[in-house]
Amino acid sequence: MAEILGTIGPAAAAAAAASTTPLNPDGELLDSIEIQLHRERQRNRELTAEVARLKRACGDLSTAAEVEEERMVNRMLGRLLELRKEKEALAIEVELEEEHLTNTMQRRLAEALLQKSVAESRAEGLSTRVERLEESFNTLGRRLRAFEISNGAAENRRSGAH
Description:
Layout: H1 2-7, H2 10-18, H3 28-161
């Protein structure tokens, strides 16, 4: 009985040792304790197995979470790299577009300045020509008046001489 009392735990052993219930000759109390002990050991094995299974499951979940986390980080790093490349490509594209626009605007400005210069030259030439024509017109006007005056005086002389 000491063997059995040593395996059922200190509280149960103390209770069994303190028991004043005599064992019947068939050993019913002893059989009952052994059955209970057997059940408790079975339950202990089941719980130990459950704890081991849960530890494995927890480890598996932890590993799976780490793998998923690493996959997500790698995917985000890949996307970040793609975005950086896209940003660089866009920066180059914007720079080329700005350069193209600058060149186009400079060319248009040069053309406009040339057209302005040509127009100013033509205007100056026309202005000079107008001035010459005005001078010619004024000269012809003076000549005509002088002619009319001289022609009128001559006619007056002729008419007065008659």
